[in-house]
Amino acid sequence: MSTAPFATAAALSPPSDEELVLKVIPMPADCNANGDIFGGWVMAQVDLAGSVIPARYAGGRIATVAVNEFIFKQPVRVGDILSFYSKLTRVGRTSLSVKVEVFAERFRAQGQFVKVTEANLTYVAIDESGQPREVPHRP
């Protein structure tokens, strides 16, 4: 991911109304041809982070059924400390939607956060045979 199409990033604070569900440091093996972290690697991490709260809420197995929105705001670099924040945005009969925001602490500017990615995903609660099941407790 080249930095050209991205706006200048302002230092932010992580969201206070979302739960920190994952922290990870990308490594050189996760780079694309430009030397930035491959977008597909970031997407996989977002899917893992996004599943934490729905799995807990559903009380069992879930499956990703939709990536409703995925925005790369800034490139991710080797050595960035990525923090994935998530919150439940919708609970249906069998499905749950979450918002995931990813913030980077740049290797040389730790303590300063830059939002690099945001996404909205939908998961469905499934039974042992992979069929949709009702979410046990809905608001």
Provide tags for this entry:
single chain, 139 residues, mainly beta, Thiol Ester Dehydrase, Chain A, five-stranded antiparallel beta sheet, 1 helix, 14% helix, 37% strand, elongated, disordered N terminus
Number of domains: 1
Architecture in CATH?
Answer: Roll
* Fraction in helix: 10-25%
Could you give the order of the helices and strands? EHEEEE
Structural class: mainly beta
**Radius of gyration, rounded?**
16 Å
Number of strands: 5
User: Biggest β-sheet, characterized?
Assistant: 5 strands, antiparallel
Low-confidence stretches: 1-8
Q: Output mean pLDDT.
A: 89
Shape: elongated
In short:
By secondary structure, this protein is mainly beta. It has one domain (19-125): Thiol Ester Dehydrase, Chain A (Roll), CATH 3.10.129.
